[in-house]
Protein backbone atom coordinates (compact mmCIF):
# COMPACT_ATOMS: atom_id res chain seq x y z
CA UNK A 1 0.00 0.00 0.00
CA UNK A 2 2.68 2.46 1.10
CA UNK A 3 4.78 1.32 -1.83
CA UNK A 4 2.10 2.31 -4.36
CA UNK A 5 1.59 5.60 -2.56
CA UNK A 6 5.29 6.37 -2.58
CA UNK A 7 5.68 5.43 -6.24
CA UNK A 8 2.68 7.54 -7.25
CA UNK A 9 3.99 10.49 -5.28
CA UNK A 10 7.41 10.23 -6.88
CA UNK A 11 5.76 11.15 -10.19
CA UNK A 12 3.86 13.97 -8.49
CA UNK A 13 7.09 15.35 -6.98
CA UNK A 14 8.86 15.33 -10.30
CA UNK A 15 5.92 17.06 -11.94
CA UNK A 16 5.75 19.70 -9.21
CA UNK A 17 9.47 20.45 -9.23
CA UNK A 18 9.39 20.86 -13.00
CA UNK A 19 6.32 23.04 -12.71
CA UNK A 20 8.21 25.25 -10.25
CA UNK A 21 11.15 25.42 -12.66
CA UNK A 22 8.81 26.18 -15.54
CA UNK A 23 7.31 29.07 -13.60
CA UNK A 24 10.68 30.59 -12.86
CA UNK A 25 11.92 30.09 -16.42
CA UNK A 26 8.84 31.90 -17.64
CA UNK A 27 9.88 34.83 -15.45
CA UNK A 28 13.41 34.62 -16.81
CA UNK A 29 11.93 34.86 -20.30
CA UNK A 30 10.00 37.98 -19.29
CA UNK A 31 13.19 39.40 -17.79
CA UNK A 32 15.21 38.91 -20.94
CA UNK A 33 12.41 40.31 -23.06
CA UNK A 34 12.37 43.35 -20.81
CA UNK A 35 16.13 43.82 -20.96
CA UNK A 36 16.02 43.59 -24.75
CA UNK A 37 13.23 46.12 -25.03
CA UNK A 38 15.16 48.41 -22.76
CA UNK A 39 18.20 48.12 -24.97
CA UNK A 40 16.15 48.77 -28.08
CA UNK A 41 14.54 51.92 -26.80
CA UNK A 42 17.88 52.80 -25.18
CA UNK A 43 16.32 55.30 -22.85
CA UNK A 44 19.03 57.53 -21.59
CA UNK A 45 16.41 60.22 -21.29
CA UNK A 46 13.34 60.64 -19.14
CA UNK A 47 11.56 57.50 -18.02
CA UNK A 48 9.58 56.06 -15.15
CA UNK A 49 11.08 52.99 -13.55
CA UNK A 50 8.83 50.63 -11.60
CA UNK A 51 9.77 50.09 -7.96
CA UNK A 52 6.95 47.76 -6.93
CA UNK A 53 7.70 44.06 -7.36
CA UNK A 54 5.86 42.85 -10.40
CA UNK A 55 5.24 39.35 -9.11
CA UNK A 56 2.73 40.54 -6.53
CA UNK A 57 0.48 42.14 -9.11
CA UNK A 58 -2.30 40.44 -11.07
CA UNK A 59 -2.03 42.73 -14.08
CA UNK A 60 0.80 43.19 -16.51
CA UNK A 61 3.08 46.17 -16.15
CA UNK A 62 6.36 47.14 -17.77
CA UNK A 63 9.37 47.88 -15.62
CA UNK A 64 10.26 50.96 -17.64
CA UNK A 65 8.08 53.58 -19.35
CA UNK A 66 9.76 56.29 -21.37
CA UNK A 67 8.13 59.68 -20.94
CA UNK A 68 7.41 61.59 -24.15
CA UNK A 69 6.38 65.21 -24.64
CA UNK A 70 3.01 64.93 -22.90
CA UNK A 71 2.33 61.58 -21.34
CA UNK A 72 -1.08 60.66 -19.92
CA UNK A 73 -1.06 57.81 -17.43
CA UNK A 74 -4.33 55.91 -17.12
CA UNK A 75 -6.45 52.86 -17.71
CA UNK A 76 -8.07 54.24 -20.86
CA UNK A 77 -7.10 52.92 -24.27
CA UNK A 78 -5.83 56.28 -25.49
CA UNK A 79 -3.40 56.79 -22.59
CA UNK A 80 0.26 57.01 -23.47
CA UNK A 81 1.15 54.91 -20.45
CA UNK A 82 -1.63 52.36 -20.14
CA UNK A 83 -1.81 50.31 -16.93
CA UNK A 84 -4.67 47.90 -16.13
CA UNK A 85 -4.65 48.57 -12.39
CA UNK A 86 -8.20 48.85 -10.98
CA UNK A 87 -7.03 51.61 -8.66
CA UNK A 88 -6.01 53.76 -11.60
CA UNK A 89 -8.56 56.03 -13.26
CA UNK A 90 -9.19 56.15 -17.00
CA UNK A 91 -7.18 59.35 -17.21
CA UNK A 92 -5.19 59.45 -14.02
CA UNK A 93 -2.26 61.82 -14.30
CA UNK A 94 -0.24 63.70 -16.84
CA UNK A 95 3.42 64.49 -17.18
CA UNK A 96 4.13 67.57 -19.28
CA UNK A 97 7.43 68.73 -20.62
CA UNK A 98 8.30 72.39 -20.77
CA UNK A 99 11.71 72.85 -22.31
CA UNK A 100 14.00 71.07 -19.89
CA UNK A 101 11.58 70.78 -16.99
CA UNK A 102 8.99 68.12 -16.32
CA UNK A 103 5.73 68.75 -14.47
CA UNK A 104 3.26 66.26 -13.09
CA UNK A 105 -0.42 66.92 -12.65
CA UNK A 106 -3.28 64.84 -11.29
CA UNK A 107 -6.24 64.61 -13.68
CA UNK A 108 -8.87 64.47 -10.91
CA UNK A 109 -8.35 60.78 -10.38
CA UNK A 110 -10.34 58.88 -7.75
CA UNK A 111 -7.40 57.58 -5.74
CA UNK A 112 -5.02 60.43 -6.30
CA UNK A 113 -1.40 60.70 -7.36
CA UNK A 114 1.42 60.82 -4.86
CA UNK A 115 4.73 62.60 -5.23
CA UNK A 116 7.33 61.44 -2.70
CA UNK A 117 4.51 60.27 -0.45
CA UNK A 118 2.42 63.47 -0.54
CA UNK A 119 -0.85 63.64 -2.41
CA UNK A 120 -0.69 65.99 -5.38
CA UNK A 121 -3.04 68.96 -5.15
CA UNK A 122 -1.54 71.12 -7.85
CA UNK A 123 0.93 70.89 -10.68
CA UNK A 124 4.35 69.99 -9.34
CA UNK A 125 7.80 69.95 -10.81
CA UNK A 126 9.46 66.55 -11.21
CA UNK A 127 13.06 66.22 -10.17
CA UNK A 128 15.47 63.39 -10.93
CA UNK A 129 14.81 60.56 -8.46
CA UNK A 130 11.34 61.68 -7.41
CA UNK A 131 9.00 58.89 -6.42
CA UNK A 132 5.60 58.85 -8.10
CA UNK A 133 2.82 56.74 -6.57
CA UNK A 134 -0.13 55.79 -8.75
CA UNK A 135 -2.71 53.15 -7.81
CA UNK A 136 -0.87 50.16 -6.39
CA UNK A 137 2.35 51.10 -8.12
CA UNK A 138 5.33 53.21 -7.29
CA UNK A 139 7.73 54.57 -9.89
CA UNK A 140 10.93 56.52 -9.72
CA UNK A 141 11.29 59.34 -12.21
CA UNK A 142 14.64 59.37 -13.96
CA UNK A 143 15.38 62.44 -15.98
CA UNK A 144 18.76 61.31 -17.21
CA UNK A 145 20.98 58.42 -16.26
CA UNK A 146 24.14 59.45 -14.47
CA UNK B 1 0.10 29.25 -9.33
CA UNK B 2 2.75 31.30 -7.58
CA UNK B 3 6.10 29.58 -6.95
CA UNK B 4 5.74 29.84 -3.16
CA UNK B 5 2.51 27.80 -3.26
CA UNK B 6 4.27 25.08 -5.22
CA UNK B 7 7.02 24.94 -2.59
CA UNK B 8 4.38 24.58 0.15
CA UNK B 9 2.62 21.74 -1.70
CA UNK B 10 5.90 19.91 -2.34
CA UNK B 11 6.87 20.20 1.33
CA UNK B 12 3.46 19.02 2.55
CA UNK B 13 3.60 15.92 0.34
CA UNK B 14 7.23 15.21 1.24
CA UNK B 15 6.63 15.27 4.97
CA UNK B 16 3.38 13.31 4.69
CA UNK B 17 5.34 10.63 2.90
CA UNK B 18 8.08 10.70 5.52
CA UNK B 19 5.47 10.41 8.27
CA UNK B 20 4.09 7.26 6.68
CA UNK B 21 7.55 5.90 5.92
CA UNK B 22 9.21 5.97 9.32
CA UNK B 23 7.97 3.21 11.59
CA UNK B 24 6.37 3.67 14.15
CA UNK B 25 4.20 6.63 13.09
CA UNK B 26 5.68 9.72 14.67
CA UNK B 27 3.76 13.01 14.70
CA UNK B 28 7.05 14.75 15.48
CA UNK B 29 7.87 14.56 11.76
CA UNK B 30 4.69 16.42 10.79
CA UNK B 31 5.64 19.08 13.34
CA UNK B 32 9.15 19.38 11.93
CA UNK B 33 7.76 19.72 8.42
CA UNK B 34 5.23 22.33 9.52
CA UNK B 35 7.94 24.41 11.20
CA UNK B 36 10.15 24.22 8.12
CA UNK B 37 7.35 25.19 5.74
CA UNK B 38 6.15 28.00 8.01
CA UNK B 39 9.69 29.35 8.16
CA UNK B 40 9.95 29.38 4.36
CA UNK B 41 6.56 31.09 3.93
CA UNK B 42 7.24 33.75 6.59
CA UNK B 43 10.70 34.59 5.24
CA UNK B 44 9.54 34.77 1.66
CA UNK B 45 6.71 37.05 2.79
CA UNK B 46 9.16 39.31 4.64
CA UNK B 47 11.46 39.49 1.60
CA UNK B 48 8.55 40.55 -0.60
CA UNK B 49 7.03 42.95 1.88
CA UNK B 50 10.21 44.69 2.90
CA UNK B 51 11.30 45.04 -0.75
CA UNK B 52 14.53 43.21 -0.11
CA UNK B 53 15.41 42.81 -3.77
CA UNK B 54 15.35 39.61 -5.76
CA UNK B 55 12.46 37.49 -4.50
CA UNK B 56 13.45 34.24 -6.24
CA UNK B 57 16.83 33.50 -4.72
CA UNK B 58 15.27 32.60 -1.40
CA UNK B 59 12.54 30.44 -2.96
CA UNK B 60 15.00 28.41 -4.99
CA UNK B 61 17.37 27.81 -2.09
CA UNK B 62 14.40 26.89 0.11
CA UNK B 63 13.26 24.25 -2.36
CA UNK B 64 16.81 22.90 -2.61
CA UNK B 65 17.19 22.76 1.18
CA UNK B 66 13.76 21.11 1.52
CA UNK B 67 14.79 18.34 -0.86
CA UNK B 68 18.02 17.96 1.10
CA UNK B 69 16.30 17.84 4.48
CA UNK B 70 13.78 15.23 3.30
CA UNK B 71 16.45 12.95 1.86
CA UNK B 72 18.63 13.32 4.98
CA UNK B 73 15.60 12.69 7.22
CA UNK B 74 14.83 9.56 5.25
CA UNK B 75 18.43 8.35 5.65
CA UNK B 76 18.72 9.15 9.34
CA UNK B 77 16.02 11.00 11.26
CA UNK B 78 18.36 12.39 13.94
CA UNK B 79 20.50 14.08 11.27
CA UNK B 80 17.32 15.34 9.62
CA UNK B 81 16.24 17.14 12.78
CA UNK B 82 19.69 18.65 13.17
CA UNK B 83 19.62 19.76 9.54
CA UNK B 84 16.32 21.59 10.14
CA UNK B 85 17.96 23.42 13.05
CA UNK B 86 20.89 24.35 10.83
CA UNK B 87 18.41 25.53 8.25
CA UNK B 88 16.72 27.79 10.84
CA UNK B 89 20.10 29.18 11.90
CA UNK B 90 20.98 29.63 8.23
CA UNK B 91 17.84 31.65 7.61
CA UNK B 92 18.61 33.93 10.57
CA UNK B 93 22.12 34.45 9.23
CA UNK B 94 20.73 35.03 5.74
CA UNK B 95 18.85 38.05 7.05
CA UNK B 96 21.78 39.10 9.25
CA UNK B 97 24.12 38.85 6.26
CA UNK B 98 21.72 41.02 4.32
CA UNK B 99 21.40 43.63 7.07
CA UNK B 100 25.10 43.77 7.94
CA UNK B 101 26.16 43.93 4.31
CA UNK B 102 23.80 46.81 3.67
CA UNK B 103 24.49 48.79 6.82
CA UNK B 104 28.19 49.33 6.07
CA UNK B 105 29.07 51.21 2.93
CA UNK B 106 32.82 50.78 2.69
CA UNK B 107 33.36 47.04 2.36
CA UNK B 108 35.84 47.68 -0.42
CA UNK B 109 38.36 49.36 1.90
CA UNK B 110 39.31 46.48 4.14
CA UNK B 111 41.52 44.40 1.87
CA UNK B 112 44.14 43.90 4.60
CA UNK B 113 41.47 42.77 7.05
CA UNK B 114 40.29 40.09 4.62
CA UNK B 115 43.81 38.82 4.02
CA UNK B 116 44.56 38.84 7.75
CA UNK B 117 41.39 36.98 8.72
CA UNK B 118 41.92 34.26 6.12
CA UNK B 119 45.50 33.65 7.14
CA UNK B 120 44.59 33.70 10.81
CA UNK B 121 41.90 31.09 10.17
CA UNK B 122 44.33 28.93 8.20
CA UNK B 123 47.00 29.14 10.87
CA UNK B 124 44.55 28.38 13.67
CA UNK B 125 43.31 25.38 11.71
CA UNK B 126 46.86 24.05 11.74
CA UNK B 127 47.37 24.88 15.39
CA UNK B 128 44.18 23.49 16.89
CA UNK B 129 42.60 21.67 13.96
CA UNK B 130 41.35 18.12 14.14
CA UNK B 131 41.66 15.61 11.35
CA UNK B 132 38.42 14.15 10.08
CA UNK B 133 38.47 11.74 7.13
CA UNK B 134 41.98 12.47 5.96
CA UNK B 135 41.75 16.25 5.85
CA UNK B 136 42.97 18.55 8.61
CA UNK B 137 40.34 21.20 8.13
CA UNK B 138 38.14 21.23 11.18
CA UNK B 139 38.22 23.35 14.31
CA UNK B 140 36.54 22.09 17.42
CA UNK B 141 34.93 24.61 19.77
CA UNK B 142 33.07 23.05 22.66
CA UNK B 143 30.92 20.30 21.19
CA UNK B 144 30.84 21.86 17.75
CA UNK B 145 33.18 21.28 14.88
CA UNK B 146 33.28 23.70 12.03
CA UNK B 147 35.18 24.02 8.80
CA UNK B 148 37.06 27.35 8.57
CA UNK B 149 37.43 26.82 4.81
CA UNK B 150 33.71 27.48 4.42
CA UNK B 151 34.18 30.96 5.92
CA UNK B 152 37.41 31.54 4.02
CA UNK B 153 35.51 30.93 0.78
CA UNK B 154 33.41 34.06 1.37
CA UNK B 155 36.32 36.16 2.66
CA UNK B 156 38.37 35.11 -0.38
CA UNK B 157 35.69 36.50 -2.70
CA UNK B 158 35.69 39.79 -0.76
CA UNK B 159 39.47 39.93 -0.94
CA UNK B 160 39.53 39.48 -4.73
CA UNK B 161 36.71 42.00 -5.16
CA UNK B 162 38.50 44.58 -3.00
CA UNK B 163 41.61 44.15 -5.13
CA UNK B 164 39.69 44.42 -8.42
CA UNK B 165 37.96 47.60 -7.20
CA UNK B 166 41.19 49.28 -6.01
CA UNK B 167 44.22 47.53 -7.54
CA UNK B 168 46.52 50.30 -6.33
CA UNK B 169 46.16 49.19 -2.70
CA UNK B 170 48.57 46.34 -3.24
CA UNK B 171 52.01 47.12 -4.62
CA UNK B 172 51.51 45.31 -7.91
CA UNK B 173 49.67 42.40 -9.45
CA UNK B 174 52.35 39.92 -8.34
CA UNK B 175 51.68 40.66 -4.68
CA UNK B 176 48.02 39.89 -5.33
CA UNK B 177 48.87 36.66 -7.15
CA UNK B 178 51.21 35.67 -4.35
CA UNK B 179 48.48 36.14 -1.76
CA UNK B 180 46.04 34.06 -3.85
CA UNK B 181 48.57 31.25 -4.07
CA UNK B 182 49.16 31.41 -0.32
CA UNK B 183 45.46 30.60 0.12
CA UNK B 184 45.67 27.70 -2.29
CA UNK B 185 48.90 26.40 -0.78
CA UNK B 186 47.33 26.35 2.69
CA UNK B 187 44.40 24.33 1.37
CA UNK B 188 46.83 21.91 -0.25
CA UNK B 189 48.64 21.47 3.03
CA UNK B 190 45.31 20.75 4.67
CA UNK B 191 44.73 18.16 1.94
CA UNK B 192 41.48 19.85 1.04
CA UNK B 193 41.87 19.45 -2.71
CA UNK B 194 38.25 20.14 -3.62
CA UNK B 195 38.35 23.50 -1.89
CA UNK B 196 41.73 24.36 -3.46
CA UNK B 197 40.33 23.58 -6.89
CA UNK B 198 37.24 25.66 -6.14
CA UNK B 199 39.13 28.77 -4.99
CA UNK B 200 41.54 28.50 -7.92
CA UNK B 201 38.60 28.24 -10.34
CA UNK B 202 36.92 31.30 -8.87
CA UNK B 203 40.17 33.28 -8.90
CA UNK B 204 41.10 32.39 -12.47
CA UNK B 205 37.60 33.18 -13.77
CA UNK B 206 37.43 36.60 -12.11
CA UNK B 207 41.00 37.28 -13.24
CA UNK B 208 40.02 36.36 -16.79
CA UNK B 209 37.00 38.65 -16.69
CA UNK B 210 38.78 41.68 -15.28
CA UNK B 211 42.34 41.43 -16.57
CA UNK B 212 43.33 42.34 -20.07
CA UNK B 213 46.80 40.84 -19.84
CA UNK B 214 46.20 37.40 -21.33
CA UNK B 215 49.85 36.43 -21.11
CA UNK B 216 49.69 36.74 -17.34
CA UNK B 217 46.56 34.61 -17.35
CA UNK B 218 48.39 31.92 -19.28
CA UNK B 219 51.28 32.03 -16.80
CA UNK B 220 48.73 31.41 -14.09
CA UNK B 221 47.27 28.39 -15.80
CA UNK B 222 50.67 26.72 -16.24
CA UNK B 223 51.54 26.32 -12.54
CA UNK B 224 48.04 24.92 -11.99
CA UNK B 225 48.92 21.98 -14.21
CA UNK B 226 52.27 21.79 -12.50
CA UNK B 227 50.61 21.55 -9.10
CA UNK B 228 48.33 18.76 -10.32
CA UNK B 229 51.29 16.76 -11.67
CA UNK B 230 53.41 17.33 -8.55
CA UNK B 231 50.40 16.51 -6.36
CA UNK B 232 49.89 13.27 -8.24
CA UNK B 233 53.43 12.07 -7.66
CA UNK B 234 53.89 13.26 -4.09
CA UNK B 235 50.50 12.76 -2.46
CA UNK B 236 49.23 9.27 -2.12
CA UNK B 237 45.56 10.13 -1.85
CA UNK B 238 45.62 12.12 -5.10
CA UNK B 239 46.83 8.98 -6.82
CA UNK B 240 44.07 6.93 -5.21
CA UNK B 241 41.43 9.39 -6.36
CA UNK B 242 42.82 9.45 -9.87
CA UNK B 243 42.86 5.68 -10.18
CA UNK B 244 39.36 5.38 -8.76
CA UNK B 245 38.23 7.81 -11.43
CA UNK B 246 39.97 6.20 -14.43
CA UNK B 247 38.93 2.67 -13.63
CA UNK B 248 36.92 2.08 -10.46
CA UNK B 249 35.96 -1.44 -11.58
CA UNK B 250 39.47 -2.80 -11.15
CA UNK B 251 39.36 -2.47 -7.37
CA UNK B 252 35.63 -2.55 -6.84
CA UNK B 253 35.75 -3.67 -3.20
CA UNK B 254 38.44 -1.19 -2.21
CA UNK B 255 39.33 2.13 -3.86
CA UNK B 256 36.49 2.07 -6.34
CA UNK B 257 33.83 1.00 -3.87
CA UNK B 258 32.28 4.39 -3.19
CA UNK B 259 32.09 5.57 -6.78
CA UNK B 260 30.79 2.27 -8.13
CA UNK B 261 28.09 2.10 -5.47
CA UNK B 262 27.12 5.62 -6.47
CA UNK B 263 26.87 4.60 -10.13
CA UNK B 264 24.82 1.50 -9.21
CA UNK B 265 22.46 3.68 -7.19
CA UNK B 266 21.92 6.11 -10.07
CA UNK B 267 21.31 3.21 -12.47
CA UNK B 268 18.91 1.54 -10.02
CA UNK B 269 16.71 4.63 -9.98
CA UNK B 270 15.91 4.68 -13.67
CA UNK B 271 13.86 7.54 -15.05
CA UNK B 272 11.39 8.07 -12.22
CA UNK B 273 13.20 6.49 -9.29
CA UNK B 274 12.30 3.75 -6.87
CA UNK B 275 10.05 6.03 -4.82
CA UNK B 276 11.11 7.66 -1.57
CA UNK B 277 12.07 4.96 0.91
CA UNK B 278 12.50 2.04 -1.49
CA UNK B 279 16.04 2.48 -2.71
CA UNK B 280 19.13 1.40 -0.80
CA UNK B 281 21.23 4.56 -0.89
CA UNK B 282 22.74 3.53 2.46
CA UNK B 283 25.08 1.17 0.57
CA UNK B 284 27.12 4.22 -0.47
CA UNK B 285 29.57 5.44 2.16
CA UNK B 286 29.14 9.15 3.01
CA UNK B 287 25.77 9.22 1.29
CA UNK B 288 24.35 12.05 3.40
CA UNK B 289 27.14 14.52 2.62
CA UNK B 290 29.16 14.15 -0.57
CA UNK B 291 27.04 11.51 -2.24
CA UNK B 292 23.58 12.87 -1.56
CA UNK B 293 23.06 13.51 -5.26
CA UNK B 294 23.25 9.75 -5.92
CA UNK B 295 20.59 9.15 -3.26
CA UNK B 296 18.32 11.71 -4.93
CA UNK B 297 18.89 10.05 -8.31
CA UNK B 298 18.11 6.62 -6.89
CA UNK B 299 14.88 7.50 -5.15
CA UNK B 300 13.60 10.30 -7.38
CA UNK B 301 15.02 9.10 -10.65
CA UNK B 302 17.14 10.74 -13.30
CA UNK B 303 14.35 13.25 -13.86
CA UNK B 304 14.57 14.22 -10.20
CA UNK B 305 18.35 14.59 -10.53
CA UNK B 306 17.99 16.76 -13.63
CA UNK B 307 15.39 18.84 -11.78
CA UNK B 308 17.94 19.50 -9.02
CA UNK B 309 20.55 20.53 -11.60
CA UNK B 310 18.01 22.83 -13.28
CA UNK B 311 17.27 24.44 -9.91
CA UNK B 312 20.97 25.24 -9.58
CA UNK B 313 20.89 26.60 -13.13
CA UNK B 314 18.17 29.12 -12.40
CA UNK B 315 19.77 30.05 -9.07
CA UNK B 316 23.05 30.79 -10.86
CA UNK B 317 21.19 32.63 -13.58
CA UNK B 318 19.76 34.99 -10.96
CA UNK B 319 23.30 35.54 -9.68
CA UNK B 320 24.62 36.42 -13.12
CA UNK B 321 21.68 38.70 -13.79
CA UNK B 322 22.44 40.65 -10.61
CA UNK B 323 26.12 40.78 -11.59
CA UNK B 324 25.29 42.24 -15.00
CA UNK B 325 23.00 44.92 -13.65
CA UNK B 326 25.24 46.31 -10.93
CA UNK B 327 27.60 49.12 -11.87
CA UNK B 328 29.69 49.36 -8.71
CA UNK B 329 32.85 47.35 -9.40
CA UNK B 330 33.27 45.93 -5.90
CA UNK B 331 29.69 44.74 -5.58
CA UNK B 332 29.76 43.41 -9.12
CA UNK B 333 32.82 41.30 -8.38
CA UNK B 334 31.39 40.06 -5.07
CA UNK B 335 28.18 39.01 -6.83
CA UNK B 336 30.16 37.29 -9.57
CA UNK B 337 32.45 35.61 -7.03
CA UNK B 338 29.60 34.24 -4.93
CA UNK B 339 27.76 32.98 -8.00
CA UNK B 340 30.88 31.34 -9.39
CA UNK B 341 31.83 29.76 -6.06
CA UNK B 342 28.52 27.97 -5.75
CA UNK B 343 28.25 27.06 -9.43
CA UNK B 344 31.73 25.49 -9.46
CA UNK B 345 31.05 23.76 -6.17
CA UNK B 346 27.91 22.18 -7.64
CA UNK B 347 29.78 21.16 -10.77
CA UNK B 348 32.71 19.66 -8.88
CA UNK B 349 30.59 17.44 -6.65
CA UNK B 350 27.91 16.40 -9.15
CA UNK B 351 30.65 15.74 -11.70
CA UNK B 352 32.51 13.76 -9.03
CA UNK B 353 29.66 11.46 -8.00
CA UNK B 354 28.69 10.75 -11.61
CA UNK B 355 32.35 9.98 -12.50
CA UNK B 356 32.65 12.82 -14.98
CA UNK B 357 35.67 14.30 -13.16
CA UNK B 358 37.83 12.88 -10.33
CA UNK B 359 36.03 12.88 -7.01
CA UNK B 360 37.01 15.50 -4.44
CA UNK B 361 35.23 15.79 -1.15
CA UNK B 362 33.11 18.91 -1.23
CA UNK B 363 29.49 19.42 -0.27
CA UNK B 364 26.53 19.96 -2.57
CA UNK B 365 25.35 23.49 -1.66
CA UNK B 366 22.11 23.62 0.38
CA UNK B 367 21.41 19.88 0.02
CA UNK B 368 24.28 18.05 1.72
CA UNK B 369 24.19 17.39 5.44
CA UNK B 370 26.49 19.72 7.33
CA UNK B 371 26.18 22.83 9.42
CA UNK B 372 29.18 24.86 8.22
CA UNK B 373 28.45 24.48 4.55
CA UNK B 374 24.72 25.17 4.84
CA UNK B 375 25.19 28.21 7.07
CA UNK B 376 27.99 29.73 4.98
CA UNK B 377 25.95 29.23 1.81
CA UNK B 378 23.06 31.07 3.44
CA UNK B 379 25.35 33.95 4.46
CA UNK B 380 26.78 34.16 0.93
CA UNK B 381 23.36 34.29 -0.68
CA UNK B 382 22.17 36.78 1.95
CA UNK B 383 24.95 39.06 0.72
CA UNK B 384 23.84 38.46 -2.87
CA UNK B 385 20.31 39.38 -1.82
CA UNK B 386 21.69 42.58 -0.32
CA UNK B 387 23.40 43.42 -3.61
CA UNK B 388 20.24 42.68 -5.60
CA UNK B 389 18.39 45.34 -3.63
CA UNK B 390 20.45 47.98 -5.43
CA UNK B 391 19.19 46.74 -8.77
CA UNK B 392 15.58 47.06 -7.68
CA UNK B 393 16.01 50.45 -6.10
CA UNK B 394 17.35 51.90 -9.28
CA UNK B 395 20.17 53.23 -7.13
CA UNK B 396 22.53 52.39 -9.92
CA UNK B 397 20.57 54.41 -12.43
CA UNK B 398 20.51 57.68 -10.58
CA UNK B 399 23.74 58.78 -9.09
CA UNK B 400 22.55 61.20 -6.45
Describe the structure in your own words:
The complex is a heterodimer of chains A (146) and B (400). Helix content of chain A is 27%, strand content 30%. Chain A contains one helix and eleven strands, in the order αβββββββββββ. A six-stranded antiparallel sheet of chain A has the order 2-1-11-10-7-8, with no helix packed on it. In chain A, strands 4-3-5-6-9 form a five-stranded mixed sheet, with no helix packed on it. The radius of gyration of chain A is 21 Å and the shape is elongated. In chain B, helix 2 (27-49) packs antiparallel against helix 3 (57-75), helix 3 packs antiparallel against helix 12 (292-325) and helix 8 crosses helix 13. In chain B, strands 1-2-3 form a three-stranded antiparallel sheet. In chain B, a hairpin with a 2-residue loop joins strand 2 and strand 3. Chain B has 400 residues and is mainly α. Chains A and B meet through helix 1 of A and helix 1, helix 3 and helix 12 of B.
Short account of what is shown:
By secondary structure, chain A is an alpha+beta fold. Chain A has 1 helix and 11 strands; from the N terminus they run H-E-E-E-E-E-E-E-E-E-E-E. Chain B has 400 residues and is mostly helical.
Strand content of chain A: 25-35%
Distance between the termini of chain B: 39 Å
The helix content of chain B, as a percent range, equals: over 70%
Identify the biggest protein-protein contact and residues per side: A-B, 34 and 44 residues
C-alpha Rg of chain A (nearest Å): 21 Å
Number of strands of chain A: 11
Largest sheet data of chain A: 6 strands, antiparallel
* Proportion of strand residues of chain B: under 5%
